Amino acid sequence: MEGGSPDQESVVSGTKKSSISSGGRIRDEFLHRFIDSQTLTSNLEDWFQALSENSFDFDVPFELIDLQKFDYALEGVSFQQLIRMPSGGGYTSSPPATMDPTAFLAIEDFLHASIKGLWEAFWDPHEPIPLNVASLYNSNLKFYQAEKAIANGKLPGLCATSVMLNNPRHPHGKWHDILELALLRPGIGTLENESEITYPSLSILGEALFYGVRVLLSRSLRRSKGLNSVFVILADCQYGGVVKLEGDLTKMEFDVNNVYECASEWIKNHSQVSVSPFDRIWNKLGNANWGDIGALQVLFATFQSMVQYAGPPKNSIEDLAADHSSRLQTRRNERRMGEIGINGNNNGLFKLQQRSVSPEIVEVPEESGNIEPRRSVTLEVGSVLVVEDSNWQKSYKINEVLSDGEMSYYYVNSVDDPGKALFLYVGSHPSQVEPAWEDMKLWYQVQRQTKVFSVMNQNGLSSKYLPQLTMSGKIIHPGACRKQNSNSGGNCDNPWCGTPILVTSPVGKTVEEMVRSGEFGADEAIKCCHDCLSALSTAATAGIRHGDIRPENIICVNSGGGQNQYFVLVGWGHAILEERDRPALNLHFSSTYALQEGKLCSASDAESLVYLLYFSSGGDLPELDSVEGALEWRDTFWSKRLIQQNLGEISAVLKAFADYVDSLCGTPYPMDYEIWLRRLKRHLHENGKEINTSS
């Protein structure tokens, strides 16, 4: 127990439990004497003066890139409309003793809406929120609902508002239950400056630090591990910002006769104080500015405070932010639909008629005989598709409709060369309004993958284990094309006109199909590992990583059977070409680093390959429904070496490869592909399974 053995000489008070250590009693007494923010502020004057001479060199609590990612994650989150709002401007000029009561009601509603929206979006919308919001009364440092406190005449004594854990045993709340505090103080709006960053006065900052230290002290008495930081929100009726106090309290000297000197010295020498810029959190009408930077900073502080107590959310920021591109595409589609209606393409429910005399938009009923809405492109077995690029036209016959588990693609033959089998992928029409998720997947499957193949060709990459770009172009539809008389971006109203096409070779059966039919044995697993590593090694020479390794994205090419069988790594639509690119996320096959950071490390593709080999060789496929669960599964199976044990039953070299990947996961160290390609090739050679590495 912290503080050593009980101090027998001091156990004379009946209010103390004999099991509490002397160190704990000293901290408890220290906290009871630490009650005056003004005295602490006075002790910080020299520190504040030194900071002012250095232009207040505070760090910011949040990096801009993290706020942007959080902003993307919140795009699909609805925060409830606030009923009680601050009165628009009289508050900032009022003294604290005569604060408008609506300000306290408004900040309570703002914080409650924040925790409700965040809890339902990131944790569990079906579980009750384990948090509440209460206001702090300064005479006894206890917590009350602002509405009750105001009704009981306690308005002048309200000094802060807190987000707290529910505590049925102590309905008035305990300080160690506080997640974050908000201080309503006049003049915060004067800190907002577009041309330069301004900081709160010593009196306001000193008060924020006072409450921050009290919270950290209270937590330390409860032996709360890892809770060594606290956020304090500073706000008035319009503007707000965040102060973060962080530090190790074990470095504080607990002299109960000099509590303020001890606390101030700890702040100066052993803590880190960071202050955000101040911006609007309410607009001039009193409504919350949920989508602006001021409210976003407060929400992010609240989110991080909730993570401290509730643990990692079920839906991470990266999970929700990953849908940003889909939501963006949806908005583009909606805007395009509006533009189509305005331009008179007859796709809307109503046509918009403009007159030179009046700017009114007049609703006109649809006339009969209008052109039908654009239909999706569907191809049937036996049909012939004509594709053109900048140089020539080619025809392809559809032999079979396939699926990668998410999207359809086609097994085709060139009409000019019937003996050569190919894969054909159909993209999304440039003006087709599809569901966002499907539209983006089609884009990755065709347009993005075409770009990746072009980059590979530009870098001279060539390998039999990589797919080859055969043709990239657009469909030529039967009948006359009327795009010359159309205003729809160079395409006529035929549903096939302008649809992008990608044709690749070679063709083969996916690993997913082989596993389902019992054709993926030990030899196939080792060959698959070798061939995929060879493909990854070739791509890595140009700085390209795959980012979406799964059984549907590896095909087995059977060019004569037996020794001529080899594997090709396909599905390069999510490949990482530059730093800003993000991989596809798959709870079963994505690497640990990809799930945690939304990016790839040097060993991420190899780690995904290990998972593929494990699951394809008899490993149990767990039911995973969250990133948190997927990370927990990975941590358990790697720590218990269950993956290595399973692969060791197939081959010692696969077990050794899994150990190697485990040692690299999440590190910046590069993969040594060559050594593992040699070891895998030697193993197959010793077992009579030759590898033909010629291109």
UniProtKB/TrEMBL annotation:
It comes from Lactuca virosa. Residues 1-22 are annotated as: Disordered. Residues 10-22 have a biased composition (Low complexity). This is Protein kinase domain-containing protein.
